[in-house]
Design goal:
- This protein has 13 helices and 14 strands.
- By secondary structure, it is an alpha/beta fold.
- The chain has 2 domains: 155 residues, NAD(P)-binding Rossmann-like Domain (Rossmann fold, 3-Layer(aba) Sandwich), CATH 3.40.50; 182 residues, Rossmann fold (3-Layer(aba) Sandwich), CATH 3.40.50.720.
- The chain has a 7-stranded parallel sheet, sandwiched between helices. Strands 2-1-5-6-7 form a 5-stranded parallel sheet.
- The longest helix has 20 residues.
- The two termini are 25 Å apart.
């Protein structure tokens, strides 16, 4: 009898993308029903005890009736959902981390949770480079001025000129899938790349970067780009003290998470000239509220948390989780399991 799978997509990772990817992996072994969640037309948020989720517990419970597997990006896997869906065995989250899943509760209920690391690495790396270039050369300001009828020839004045990547030292805080791609691109553009990441070895960065302490990275880097996850150790890791340590006229870029940075310190540094420019795709509060000082800060380039938004990402996300659905149905080990103790129990 075919396994029932719920493809709980949204308006980015579309339900049919998930469904087609699962069929390609599993063929006639599955029956698929689809659910469309409202993200990104409605911002994600906290649902019960999980973060960055879309939709409601009740609609998910109704859609999951009789389903053994759910593939999704944003659906909330909560204690209430798990209690109401005893047939559920596998919950696949098509994003870099399963923040919308209660892993502890899933483990207690015997539900394996998988995720899709690296799905948006290329897109986010490209967006990072775009923000570096835009902030370092003040491209958005020049574009707006020219469209308004002002020819800004004064940007040839030395004090107004930006900086090149070629010959600059760029510091990357975090060296995961995204950081490695950014480092490779920067090296190709002629930069000297420094990396601070306590979880990687010198050998892991060899050939594209040099591993250093955070203090050394800040003191040497004309461009600093953040690629770390938010933990108790990294929350607020870039504040007034750290910004004061960078060379005057540097550029700060954040395509990771807003909680890594003290935005007020950035605004002050932009106003004083300590920072030449900044590029942010993420913010402490999202959507960024009206009146936030970053909205009117000088020489800042801001985008609404879209670094990982490309059509290729949606396809990659669906393919990564669908591959684990295929493995699960064939009795093979899961590639990206967030609660591997269940996998060991199952395989054993």
């Amino acid at each position: 009898m075919p396994t029932t799978v719920l493809a709980a997509g949204d308006h980015f990772v579309l339900p049919w993308l998930l469904a087609d990817a699962v069929r390609a992996e599993s063929g006639d072994d599955v029956t698929i029903r689809e659910l469309t969640l409202p993200w990104p037309h409605t911002p994600f948020g906290r649902v019960a005890e999980v973060d960055e989720a879309s939709g409601t517990e009740d609609e998910l419970i109704e859609a999951l009736a009789g389903a053994r597997i759910c593939v999704t990006q944003m659906a909330p896997l909560t204690e209430k959902v798990l209690d109401a869906c005893p047939d559920l065995e596998l919950f696949c989250v098509s994003r870099g981390g399963p923040v919308n899943a209660n892993i502890e509760a899933a483990t207690r209920h015997g539900v394996a949770v998988t995720f899709a690391p690296g799905r948006n690495a290329a897109a986010t790396a490209e967006h990072t480079i775009a923000l570096i270039l835009a902030a370092a050369r003040r491209i958005p300001d020049l574009h707006s001025d020219l469209r308004a009828g002002t020819w800004r020839g004064d940007y040839y004045a030395y004090e107004n000129c930006g900086i090149e990547i070629d010959g600059s030292t760029v510091g990357l805080i975090g060296f995961g899938a995204i950081g490695r791609r950014v480092a490779a691109a920067l090296t190709a553009l002629g930069a000297t790349v420094l990396v601070h990441d306590p979880y990687v070895t010198d050998d892991a960065v060899a050939g594209v970067a040099t591993k250093v302490t955070l203090d050394e990275l800040l003191s040497r880097s004309r461009i600093v780009s953040l690629h770390a996850r938010v933990t108790d150790e990294t929350k607020g890791m870039i504040g007034a003290e750290q910004i004061a340590a960078v060379p005057r006229g540097s550029v700060l870029v954040n395509c990771a998470r807003g909680a890594l940075v003290d935005d007020d310190a950035v605004v002050e540094a932009l106003a004083s000239g300590r920072l030449y420019g900044a590029g942010f795709d993420v913010f402490a509060a999202e959507p960024i509220p009206p009146g936030d000082p970053l909205l009117t800060a000088p020489n800042v380039v801001i985008t609404p948390h879209v670094a990982g938004a490309s059509r290729q990402v949606a396809h990659k996300a669906a393919q990564i989780v669908a591959a684990d659905v295929g493995r699960y149905l064939r009795g093979e080990p899961l590639a990206h399991c967030a609660n591997p103790e269940l996998q060991r129990r199952r395989v054993g």
